[in-house]
Each structure stands twice: as C-alpha cells, then as structure tokens.
Amino acid sequence: MGLDQSEVDAYLQADKRIVGDGPIEWERPAPDCSRWSGTVEVDAVRVGEVWFIANPELPKAWHFTLSLHKTVVYRLENQVPPARHQNRRGCPDGFPGRFGAVPHEHVWIAAVPKLRCARPIKELADGNHHAFFQAFCERAKLVCGPEYSSPLPPFTEMELGS
After folding, report:
1. What is the pTM of this model?
2. Is the predicted pLDDT of residue 112 greater than 80, yes or no?
C-alpha cells in the first residue's frame, strides 16, 4: 500500500525522535562510504528511520534521508561538482528545472514518484557536516537521541569550515 500526500505531510510536520543514546557510531563498509541508520518515533511509536551517508573521500558529499514505513519521504543532500540536478515534470512552483552541485532537499510529492522534486538550499553551501546534520534535524523536525559524531577525519572538518 502506498502513502498518500496527507499522511506524508502529517508525518513531516510531526515532532519526531531518533531513538538511541550515546554517540552515533558510523559503519565504514567501503573507503568511500560511511553510514549510520536509526529508528524514528512519533509519540513513542516507531514509524520510520533515518539514514546518514557520507563519502569521506570527497569534500561535502553527504546525504541525510528520512523514511516513513520504508518509503523515503525527505532527503537533504550535498553533491560535489560536476553533479547537477534536473527535476521531473509535475514538480510544483519553487522547484527549478535544473541546478548545479549545491546543497538541496528532495521533497515527497504524491504526483511525482521517488523524490524527483528537489530545490536548492543556498544558505547551507558554506556549512560543514555538523551544520548540515543540524539543518536536516531542524527541517525534518527531528530530535536526535544519539549524540552527533562526524564520519569525517578531524582534518577534513577543519578544512571544510567547522
């Protein structure tokens, strides 16, 4: 059974909590991938999850994903040049046809499957991984139980403007 727009909108507007305590412990399944996932609760009911993915080999290659019942409904990401993004037909106003490698969010819209509508968020362009994490939590209305930890080596955070 698929999700409908009102169910997704209610979830995105609800206060959510990432379950856990202690620091986030990143997995490193490959040199170009650090990842962590956690369970999301609304009113103490487990309804979704988050995935945080970073490529420590590239500057600012980060993805933060929120799902509801195993369907991704929101993603905040940063890609490195020369990456570009092109939106599909059917995206509402406020979603440009194309844009370059800048921080952006993908928004779930019932009429456009698979999070194909994205819009740039220029105010995150100069942020480090921690700032991006904080922005994701704020935009997704998430309180993170586990303590933030960076997937990146300390020198990388300093070079990228921590």
Report:
1. 0.90
2. yes
